[in-house]
């Protein structure tokens, strides 16, 4: 039986080593900075949105809906199909040059769990089992016990990109994806994606990799002494803030300007029996979300944050009249035409070679091989236990 235990340990270590993936660490240069980040979760089986909320310990159900731009009327038991993608909002903390989720989520080990399964299956490969072991001080990843709590360090960042504040989105790369295609999809450049993700060549892209995507964020007037500062909201999302009293959304159709209004919900602040008045001073009748126009000027009452005592507002005036265009510059005199030179004899162009499959495509199929190896290894483990009983 002692030989069987040794063989079991060797097989398990070999299987884990063979199926390990590159650890994802996203750059986050400002030590101690905190921000809201997003990450893509792919459900391994049929579930519902409340179960996902509980798994990732998202505090507010409505903000999970907002991160995915789901209607607020969606029930908490909304079905989520296997392989369906859900965006998870969480707080990112920068430390030691990288960003990880701020001590959440915490996973409680279940009977029969092993660390590779937790990383690859339960959390869909957003972290590796080596990262879970490192951040939790687990010396031997094969030795975990039911009831043990493990912090899952989701990768993230709070850095500006090209001098602009953004919301960092950790996207799981699909097999067949390319850096150029992803950049076009999210309105960025291949060069930006390569720099953000410490890649020197697009061929380094791997299927299943967590790729850092900078999502444009709406500009806001939230004060730096507000409890929700820095207030960054990605395009196509909404959030409830100011103790549930204010709903804000970001929409590129509104020129990436934050739009906020009273939520109409009950306050979650125990000191507020009702939500504070959200009226702007110096403008009769203007509350958060209201606008008034006079000539070419439009004045808006905007959300500026909140404290434990009140909700902050401010008046913003901007011109809404179109800027007159400048008259076209006179055209230059045409240059004299060049003398006629006979063209070279026609030569048929070479037939282009078919494009090579992307790295993500190749690694996607390699992953199938590792999964098969893991399956065989597990079968050998059970066989060895049977033979040496």
TrEMBL record:
The chain crosses the membrane at residues 368-388. Residues 105-152, 169-213 form the LysM domain. Keywords: Membrane, Signal, Transmembrane, Transmembrane helix. InterPro entries: LysM. The keyword Metal-binding does not apply. Residues 1-17 form the signal peptide. It comes from the Eukaryota. It holds the Pfam family LysM. This is LysM domain-containing protein. It comes from Carya illinoinensis. The lineage of its organism: Eukaryota, Viridiplantae, Streptophyta, Embryophyta, Tracheophyta.
